[in-house]
Amino acid sequence: MESKADRSTSSFDAVKWLVVFVLIAAGVVGNQYFNAESLLYRVLALVALALVAAFVALQTERGRRFATLLKEARVEIRKVVWPTRPELIQTTAIVVVFVLVVALMLWGMDSLISWLVSGVIG
């Protein structure tokens, strides 16, 4: 069952998300309204609005879960064993040769079918 504190937190999260969407909308509308201004100023204003919107979004429950996901993904990325240069070159060469062989087989089948169809049609 949902407690009263959970409901107030979720409704406050809804207000926070509303603020995020209002900030994004203000950025879009402001960018259109101030299109005569310098592009640099508009980009700086959009970046500032995006940072504020991201900060507000990270204060919500979903935002905190998303931040946790990013942290865990970063930990997992550090565990990846990247191939050495010789392994990379060898694997790339195998893929290129395989693609060429399949392309030649398809070209051969296409030519054969084309030759058969032209023989039937006359």
TrEMBL record:
<keyword id="KW-1133">Transmembrane helix</keyword>
<keyword id="KW-0472">Membrane</keyword>
<dbReference type="InterPro" id="IPR038379">
    <property type="entry name" value="SecE_sf"/>
</dbReference>
<keyword id="KW-0813">Transport</keyword>
<keyword id="KW-0811">Translocation</keyword>
<comment type="function">
    <text>Essential subunit of the Sec protein translocation channel SecYEG. Clamps together the 2 halves of SecY. May contact the channel plug during translocation.</text>
</comment>
<keyword id="KW-0812">Transmembrane</keyword>
<dbReference type="Pfam" id="PF00584">
    <property type="entry name" value="SecE"/>
</dbReference>
<dbReference type="InterPro" id="IPR005807">
    <property type="entry name" value="SecE_bac"/>
</dbReference>
<keyword id="KW-1003">Cell membrane</keyword>
<keyword id="KW-0653">Protein transport</keyword>
<dbReference type="GO" id="GO:0065002">
    <property type="term" value="P:intracellular protein transmembrane transport"/>
</dbReference>
<feature type="transmembrane region" description="Helical">
    <location>
        <begin position="12"/>
        <end position="33"/>
    </location>
</feature>
<dbReference type="GO" id="GO:0005886">
    <property type="term" value="C:plasma membrane"/>
</dbReference>
<feature type="transmembrane region" description="Helical">
    <location>
        <begin position="39"/>
        <end position="58"/>
    </location>
</feature>
<dbReference type="GO" id="GO:0009306">
    <property type="term" value="P:protein secretion"/>
</dbReference>
<protein>
    <recommendedName>
        <fullName>Protein translocase subunit SecE</fullName>
    </recommendedName>
</protein>
<dbReference type="InterPro" id="IPR001901">
    <property type="entry name" value="Translocase_SecE/Sec61-g"/>
</dbReference>
<comment type="similarity">
    <text>Belongs to the SecE/SEC61-gamma family.</text>
</comment>
<dbReference type="GO" id="GO:0043952">
    <property type="term" value="P:protein transport by the Sec complex"/>
</dbReference>
<comment type="subunit">
    <text>Component of the Sec protein translocase complex. Heterotrimer consisting of SecY, SecE and SecG subunits. The heterotrimers can form oligomers, although 1 heterotrimer is thought to be able to translocate proteins. Interacts with the ribosome. Interacts with SecDF, and other proteins may be involved. Interacts with SecA.</text>
</comment>
<dbReference type="GO" id="GO:0006605">
    <property type="term" value="P:protein targeting"/>
</dbReference>
<dbReference type="GO" id="GO:0008320">
    <property type="term" value="F:protein transmembrane transporter activity"/>
</dbReference>
<feature type="transmembrane region" description="Helical">
    <location>
        <begin position="88"/>
        <end position="109"/>
    </location>
</feature>
